[in-house]
Amino acid sequence: MTARYYAHTDAGHGHLLVAASFEDAALAFAEAHAPMADDDAIRVIVQHEDGGPEHCFVIHLDDGEVEPCG
């Protein structure tokens, strides 16, 4: 089942995405917006379209690894 998520960077650049999970939304956002990264990782914040808590992920662009922000 998919849902709509709003994903953005710390700089506020964001998009509404359809994904299976918060993590999938973060990965899809990072894949589409990797050129915005200053290094080999991008920090993406994801929230359900209807609101609720934000989930933060670090996406490592060199290998696609996704981890929660520390």
Considering the chains and any ligands shown, give keywords for the structure.
70 residues; alpha+beta; 1 helix; 5 strands; globular
What does this structure look like?
This protein has one domain (3-68). 17% of the residues lie in helices and 41% in strands. It contains 1 helix and 5 strands. It has one helix spanning 22-33; strands at 3-8, 14-19, 41-48, 55-60, 66-68. It has a 5-stranded antiparallel β-sheet with strand order 2-1-3-4-5, covered by helices on one side. The longest helix has 12 residues, at 22-33. The mean pLDDT is 88.
Strand order, biggest sheet? Answer: 2-1-3-4-5
Q: From N to C, what is the helix and strand string? A: EEHEEE
Major β-sheet annotation: 5 strands, antiparallel
Question: How many DSSP helices?
Answer: 1
Mean pLDDT rating? 88
Oligomer: single chain
Terminal CA distance = 28 Å
Low-confidence stretches: none
What is the tally of beta strands?
A: 5
User: Rough shape?
Assistant: globular
Structural class estimated from helices and strands: alpha+beta
Rg calc: 11 Å
Work out the helicity level.
Answer: 10-25%
Share of residues in strands: 35-45%
In short:
The protein has one helix spanning 22-33, and strands at 3-8, 14-19, 41-48, 55-60, 66-68. It has 70 residues and is an alpha+beta fold.
Helices and strands, with pairings:
Elements: E1 3-8, E2 14-19, H1 22-33, E3 41-48, E4 55-60, E5 66-68
